[in-house]
Design brief:
Layout: H1 19-29, H2 36-45, H3 50-63, H4 78-95, H5 115-121, H6 137-144, H7 148-161, H8 167-170, H9 186-194, H10 200-224, H11 233-236, H12 238-247, H13 250-255
Helix pairs in contact: 1-3, 1-6, 3-6, 4-10, 4-12, 10-12
The structure holds zinc ion (2 copies).
The site of one zinc ion (ZN) has 8 residues, from helix 3 and helix 5.
Amino acid sequence: MAIRTAQVLLPAAPLRLTTEEVRLLWSFVHGAIQIPSMRAWMRESLGFCPRHTWGYAVVEIELWEAGVGDRAGHVPFDVSVLYEDLARGLGRRLAQPRGWGRRPDAVLVPARRCLICTQLDSPPKEGFAIGYANSNSAALAAEANPLRHSRRWCSLTADAWAELACSACLGDGPSSPAHDAAAPCRLHLAEAVRAGRAGDGDLAAAALRLTGVADRLAVFVESVTMFGPSAGPADEASWIEALGFFAGWRFPAFLAGLVAPEN
Ligand SMILES: [Zn+2]
Ligand SMILES: [Zn+2]
């Protein structure tokens, strides 16, 4: 049965991550993803909730300073590795939405709660509240929250993703992009399927799109490694496309200056 989680779309506003959120996300960047049970959790929970999906990208981009190859750090690498896996897996399931003995929209809904939300709700064990390698989480939060590098990424790649963004996320304002290439995000697609406004054809289109995103993410991830090929604009934007699908588009649109700030 699908579990209701904090699947609340983010407003067009800064995240203002708390010290504890940064501590947990920074620990996750440093290896939790390598643990098989964590990888299984991520697949069941379809990644994190919208806030922690974008929070994960922000923490990695803002705080990870050392790069490889031509990169000088501040690159969404781990988040791209994770969402390539999730996009490919969800793409496969969406190709046969009725083959899993569930309602088709259930494929789009997490079967497990967001890991970070769950950790935030559990009281820290004595002696375990320090950050990764004793890092000062409050200082890291102060460094992450201005969103300097995340803003740059979203702005520089906007030409490659703005037309793909879910129009239900961005609203119907006069400046909102209502392009032919636009497709609903996971949350709005699930809503449309439940309401009978979308059917198997829309799920098949989403499946195709996710597989394409996963392929571009694979190229992008390779490009970040020492001897990887260079990535084109669509590859560089693929992580935003993936996160936009899983967690909504208002936040990157806000960072790129495509929607007005809400507070
Ligand atoms: Zn969460
Ligand atoms: Zn949406």
